[in-house]
Amino acid sequence: MDAEVMKSYLPLYRDALFLTMRIGWQGVMLALVLGLACAAVLQLKLPFIRRIVTVYVELFRNTPLLVQLFFLYFALPRIGIRIPAEVCGCVGLGLIGGAYMTETFRSGLDSIARIQMESAASLGMTSFQIFRYVILPQAVASSVPGILANIIFLLKETSVFSTISLMDLMFTAKDLIGMYAKTLECLTLLVIFYLIMLLPVCIAGNILERRLRYAEFGN
Amino acid sequence: MENALLTVEHLHKSYGGHIVLDDLSFTVRKGEVIVVIGPSGCGKSTLLRCINALEEIQGGRVLLNGESVRKDAGNIPQMRQKIGMVFQSYDLFPHKTILDNITLAPRKVQKRGKAEAEREALELLERVGLADRKNDYPRQLSGGQKQRVAIVRALCMHPELLLLDEITAALDPEMVREVLDVVLSLARSGSTMLIVTHEMSFAKAIADRVFFLEEGRIMEESADPESFFQCPQTPRAQAFLRTFDYER
Amino acid sequence: MQSLGIEVLFKGINFQRLLAGLWVSVRLSLISVIISIVLGTGMGMLMTSKSRLLQFFFRLWLETVRIMPQMVLLFVVYFGSTRVFGWNLDAEAAAIIVFSFWGTAEMGDLVRGALISIPKIQYESARALGMDEKTLYLYVILPQTIRRMLPLSINLITRMIKTTSLVMMIGIVEVLKVAQQIIEANRKSSPNAAFGVFGTVFLLYFLICWPVSRLSVWLEKRQAA
After folding, report:
1. Contact predicate A126/B111, CB 8 Å
2. B78 close contact with A: CB closer than 8 A
């Protein structure tokens, strides 16, 4: 392994990391917002929109991100919808993530026993108060492990961005391997940079999850 | 009837085609303790849930101080504040401490001050012997302790009527006593209660009146619990009470 | 209205080519799933062992596949073996190695989870009835373990199928690659082929994965009831 070569590649990898992280986290934020909104639609049983949400969730949970990105990036321009690659990556990640988050939030809401709502109601709380003080805090806490797993999944999924010619970590590695054939160095850096991106999230997630565990014990 | 706190008139409840409560009518006076007994599935719990409008009813009405309690009425949160309920499964809020469990509704629903609500909560906790557990979470308490907290949570709202739905059914036998003692002391201090229970000796000790419920109807009613448990009038009640005896 | 480019699929054997491409990724996933189930069951049983060393080893394995994107693993194995070590590993073999490596860890964790979720009392009451260890595992523990694992392992199949779309990145000609070829070949006659063809690929994936994930949900619901 050639340390000098690796050193010279560092700036390229660093830029790629920033790009991947930026689009990745924007996608995660979009996914959270979308997921919350869709879960709310399902919970409130809004007619019609609920069906659209169901179709959306099923469609995006059952297809690969790679195929979704190809559709957004290569197919949509053919019917006049042109989206820049970066936005494409972010929206694609947000869409697939939104579908997964919807499921997570929904099962969090489902996990709260009916009796919790009834006992809150018997104390004279209004529907809004029941949701605000009893259901929401518990639903969020019990969704946390799922949300964290989804975030890690989404950040990993960013590895397909290179297919729509975003200069992310995979793109950089592949490009450098193709040009200089320093395969070992390139692959080592690739692994290291993905660790830099994902390890802190995993560790932070583990800590957070341990702190929020109380909600799982129920009574 | 004079002094009627709760009036139930021609209450009818059915699920699909199955009739659960069949034309029930009775009144409860202020300060009275009613115990409802009967075999599983006779509609005891449903009756309590209907009084608190947790269930839709198909006919009749429930009046508290002459005011109608209806699930779809706009004033249902206000009405429910006057009716405390404790469930079998001591459903405390797992994400709140004992103190917060008790003061949540007084503060958010009745808009009472934090200090005042907490002071009263502590007094009540003291009465049930749990003041030292105020900062614990529900999961750190035993079943009996949780159920006592659930009673305090209901009491802190100053309800005019308390509904207790098989509150000892899920408890280990040695914890039943501590919970029933609390209920007994409430009865002595004049609380109006409607109690569903399977603890027959407790029922005998606490009841002003006993309802024997079967197939959604009050088959027998007695204002003399002592003699009711000694020798019930109806064959059905006799058969039911016999199931609690082990004689050879 | 302009054409949506779907007509390209009905030209010659284009649609069959697309399906054949899809079969490439489905076949890869099925092979990997089978290997994962076999190895994962063994791994799961070993994971319940008391040996600290074994536990550490499996933990490391599991965390590696959980943290590293499958794409990175594919690159490392494929380019690492061919370019760094100069082995003659073909892309499909590299893909199967990577997906089995990943699937075995996931499957192992599922088996472990199912095994430890079976209450001790089940073992004790079976022994109290005089069952020997073989009967105990065969008739009491295993059926319950499988019941608990089934929905999640079926879920693993759909995850596997979705993930195998990545193999185009190491040069395997699967459905997306075929789609690109078809679009390229018809660039002049059907400029909008990208819409129709990629749209079709999207739907094809959905048609494969959706029934499988419904099955998993159905099984889970049936068990909960």
Report:
1. no
2. yes
CA distance A174 to B91: 57
Distances (CA, A) of B70 to A130, B56, B74, B151, B195: 18, 8, 9, 24, 21
Take residue C128 and report the two structure tokens written for it. 């109290």
Residue A60 · residue A72 · CB < 8 Å: no
Tokens of B124: 């009540």
pTM of the model: 0.79
For chain C, say whether A166 makes contact (Cβ under 8 Å): no
Residues 6+ apart with CB under 8 A from A4: none
Helices (H), A133-168: 136-157
Provide the residue range defining the domain that includes C186. 6-224
User: What's the domain count of chain A?
Assistant: 1
Q: What is the ipTM of this complex?
A: 0.86
Please give the tally of structural domains in chain C: 1
Q: Is residue C87 part of a domain?
A: yes
| Residue of A62, A183, A199 lying closest to C79 (CB–CB) | A183
Q: Do at least 3 CB pairs under 8 Å connect C with B?
A: no
Interval B208-237: pLDDT, tens: 999 999 888 999 999 988 889 888 889 988
Contact with chain A for residue B62, Cβ under 8 A = no
Residue of B nearest to A218 (CA): B94
